Amino acid sequence: MPLLSRTLAIALGAAVFGTGCIGEFIQDAFSSILLDYEIDQPRVLAMALEPPVLAHGVDTELHALIVAPDGDQATEAVWKTCGLRDDVPTYVSSLQCFAEDTDVSLVGSGSLPATYEMLDLSGIACDEDLPTWDTGLALHTHDTGDTGLVELDQVPCAHWLPLLVEAELARETVQGVLHARWFLEPWDPAVTMPITGRQREHSLTVHGDPAPGEQIRVELEVEGDLRSDGFQWYVDEGELEKTSFTAAQRYEDPPEEAPEGTQGTTWTDNLWTLPERASGTYRIWVVWAQPWVDEEVETSVPDLIWTQTQVILP
Asked: Which of 7, 79, 190, 261 lies in disulfide reach of 108, CB 3.0 to 4.6 Å?
């Protein structure tokens, strides 16, 4: 199976551009993404770090939502990265580095979520002029001069590396990848870790009476102001009237008497028409991102969260 035949698409998905009119291709690709919400084969729907930071002194949970038809969902996985050096800070944009075994490091394996204890990389003097790590791997096949692996100078004291997850599901190998910042300096235990999206309240509720061929409303309620964000939906089978992407449809500020720091609430929903002659269990998922901001280290990264529910038809 080709490496990363199913690559995780964060938020709006990913497209590979070919020949022809790019404008038309983008429109066709986006239309395809909007309707690509049924689970008809094993898929990595989302990946996330909890908290969304990799630094020595922090136990990071590695989460992945990996599903398949007929109710299958991965409970175990293998995690890898490539380019994890202890002598120079590196930026890896090309996934071809996974083809070189000497560049690949095992991050973890076993039950989901996995826990990763970051290596101590404080020995890297990232504030000095260091040589570029050059493995000869081309970022683009037509550009042999660009290795895709360069010294990281725009983000001090950090690697920027791909994190790959791989699982066996429905007798297939399924893979996904996200790029993460790997801090070289240990996490200061005196710094309070910012609240993550998983620590905020959220619920997914079914409204209506599920029945074959009938339409039900599924509503997501999330703590926080997500009016400028989007929500990605998936179902085992059926039709989503609002397609796979919805926007926030309602927001309420917290009550005036609420304690300082209390978040407001955002709502969004979708209309799910269940399959005709359906019986058994049918799942529905929602994936969204809440910005995780750490003012101490001046970083902001998308924090992917997901939830799911199901309906049972006789």
From this structure: 79
Closest CA to 275 of 205, 217, 207, 210: 210
Dist CA 8 CA 14 (whole Å): 8
Q: Give 98-127 pLDDT, tens digit per residue.
A: 888 888 999 999 999 999 999 898 888 766
Rounded Cα distance, 233 and 148, in Å: 33
Six token digits for residue 74: 């991965």
In the structure encoding, which two tokens stand for residue 30, read together? Answer: 């986006």
Range 218-222, long-range pairs (CB < 8 A, 24+ positions): 218/269, 218/270, 218/271, 218/272, 218/284, 218/309, 219/267, 219/268, 219/269, 220/267, 220/268, 220/269, 220/286, 220/288, 220/307, 221/265, 221/266, 221/267, 222/265, 222/266, 222/267, 222/268, 222/288, 222/290
pLDDT of residue 113: 96
Residues 160-179: what's their mean pLDDT? 92
Spatial distance between the Cα atoms of 80 and 165, rounded to a whole number of angstroms: 7
Q: Does residue 51 have a cis peptide bond before it, meaning omega lies within 30 degrees of 0? A: yes
Opening angle at CA 241, ends 235 and 243, nearest 5: 65
The residue ranges of every structural domain in the chain are 22-183, 197-313
Quote the tokens at residue 220.
């997501």
CA distance 135 to 106: 19
Q: 185 and 157 in contact (C-beta within 8 Å)?
A: yes
CATH 2.60.40 fits 197-313, yes or no: yes
Neighbour tally for 57: CB within 10 Å? 14
Residue type present at position 226: L
Average pLDDT over residues 206-215: 97
User: What is this structure's pTM?
Assistant: 0.82
Tell me which of 306 and 98 has the higher pLDDT: 306
Cα–Cα distance between 244 and 86 in angstroms, integer? Answer: 42
Average per-residue pLDDT for the chain: 80
* pLDDT recorded at residue 197: 86
